[in-house]
Amino acid sequence: FFRFVDEVSTAKYNMLVKWSAEDSRFLVTVPQMPEYMTDGRTYEEAVINAALLFRMDRYSQKTGRTIPGFS
Q1: What is the Cα–Cα distance from 30 to 63, expressed in whole angstroms?
Q2: Sequence-separated (6 or more) residues with CB below 8 Å from residue 13
Q3: What is the pLDDT of residue 9?
Q4: Closest to 54 measured CA to CA, from 9, 24, 23
Q5: What is the three-class DSSP state of 18?
Q6: CA–CA separation, 69 vs 7, rounded Å?
Q7: pTM of the entire predicted model
Q8: Cα(4)–Cα(27) distance, integer angstroms
């Protein structure tokens, strides 16, 4: 598990990072938010992608704007 903090609400979330031999990528899920899933070629890339996904979601919620390709 990798923990990160939402700077806005100070909530803490866990990221579960695991290697997928089938996909040859690291997969990331956030147990507290089952709709969150991303990946990366490296562990670091997967974690960064998850953090970006989280920020995009928070931005969308805060501004009420939708982000193309993000649901």
Answers
A1: 23
A2: 3, 4, 5, 6, 30, 32, 33, 54
A3: 52
A4: 9
A5: strand
A6: 24
A7: 0.72
A8: 16
Under a CB-based contact definition with an 8 Å cutoff, are residues 28 and 38 in contact?
yes
Residue with tokens 């070629």: 41
Residues 6+ apart with CB under 8 A from 23: 39
Name 5's bridge partners.
12
pLDDT tens by residue, the chain, 71 residues: 555 555 555 567 788 899 999 999 999 988 888 888 899 999 999 988 888 888 888 888 888 887 776 55
pLDDT of residue 5: 53
